[in-house]
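Sorry, I am new here, but would you mind making up a protein's amino acid sequence and the tokens describing how it folds?
***
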Amino acid sequence: MANELESSFSTGEDPVEYDNLLQEVFRATSRGERAPARPRPLISASWKRSRRAGLRPDQCRCPMHSPVRARRVPSRTSTTRQLIPMLKQTLPQHDNGMFENGSYLVVLTDAEARIVWRYGSTEARQRADSIGFVKGAMWRENTVGTNAIGTALAVRHPVQVHGAEHFCLAHQRWSCAAAPIIDPRSRACLGIVNISCTVAEAHPAMLALASLLAHTLEMELHEAHQHELERLRTISWPMQHTQGDEPWAVTDRLGWVAATNSASAGSRFTLPEHPDRDLLWLPEFGSAKATSLPGGWFIQGQTVVEAEPGENRLQITRTSGGAHVTMDAGDVHWSVEIPPRQVDVITQINAHRDGVSAADLSEAIFGDRTHTVTVRAEVSRIRRALGPVIIAAPYRFAEGMRVEID
């Protein structure tokens, strides 16, 4: 985590004097003039995003939820609210009076940068009220410009924004540090924890403290997840001991394994949105059936009738991160995500239905014939992910496999 931390200014540097320089940089940059110093690349990129969003430094406001929408709280906001008791328990360990009686304010937002909770003195909260830094306000970059919350959400790592590094003029009397809270199960951002104060009270250590608070919450979530897996092991105990020789696994809703009798299961399965609707095809088990448990799944390997020739269909839909693959093979309906390089390999193999060598694949993908080891490794990964859909010597799709690439 330490390698990600880039404070706005150095320890020992006067925060007010440094902000005076930032004011000159901001004014010159806004006018297209030569600045006395360059803004940090992180800040420069955020200013550009703010301008592209159509914002002006003198016309920023914080959108609020309407009363109707406020009654329909998004599920991710509800998840973030579960972090509030954890944060309340953690803060006293780091509060030497700076929050409860001082000028510092702690803010928790949801994954959309919407403020769900604040903690600080009356003075700090009243000062925050004056700029719309209140519960329900949205602090994304594209609504209020460069700020620690919105920018941390945009770049997905801890950020400090000091004084005139803020895009909005009304926010430039503030110094803020924020860090994203990453769900250890899904790797999704659950929200942002932010520390704010006046420019004069700012310190580089604010960024480390915000990062520490976020990391502490992530560790609490990890521990809670381990307790959830233990609960699943307990409630599934009767099912575990009434199975035959087929492989089985107990997982949570995201596919994390709580218990299994299979050495090939690994720590997590990639599951479709509704695993219990049809038979699954899992690389670890082959054909499998999922039975719903409270908060999870009991997955059992199945013996099914092989599909007749011509019944197997592999549908590949390109995405920004590679491709979404679905397979229909007799009773089996299954899906998985694959990265761009594997999409390239599959595309080339599909273009050579009679077969293609590793050297030919290397030339088609890399421009020369020297990357055969990489090609073979990618084919091996594809087979682990998709099952035995590709056969070798030469590489080609198995007989009866219909491949469609969008």
Observations:
- Residues 52 and 142 are 9 Å apart (CA to CA).
